[in-house]
UniProtKB/TrEMBL annotation:
Alphabetic keyword roster: Membrane, Transmembrane, Transmembrane helix
Organism classification: Bacteria, Bacillati, Bacillota, Bacilli, Lactobacillales
Lineage: superkingdom: Bacteria
KW Transmembrane (keyword) present: yes
Residue stretches spanning the membrane: 6-29, 41-68
The protein's name: Membrane protein
InterPro entries named in the record: DUF1146 (IPR009526)
């Protein structure tokens, strides 16, 4: 039971780190320069896009870690 809680906490932390990384990467593009008058909902779109990209990247990273952890069963 203790290990499940630690695993869940690790997943939440990794999710937030990847979402933050995606958000800072998108902010670095300065998307607002592409518009003469940026729409009012542009910040919301950036947050939603960074959440989607961060979620996908975090799931990929966690999947790779799980696969590496399961390689020990191949040797047994």
């Amino acid at each position: 039971m203790q290990m499940t809680g630690i695993h869940a906490l690790l997943e939440i932390i990794v999710q937030f780190i990847f979402i933050w990384l995606a958000f800072t990467a998108i902010q670095g593009f300065h998307v607002e320069r592409l518009f003469k008058r940026p729409p009012r909902t542009l910040p919301l779109a950036i947050v939603l896009l960074s959440t989607a990209i961060g979620y996908l990247c975090a799931n990929f990273f966690l999947g790779i870690l799980t696969a590496i952890g399961n390689l020990t069963y191949l040797v047994r």
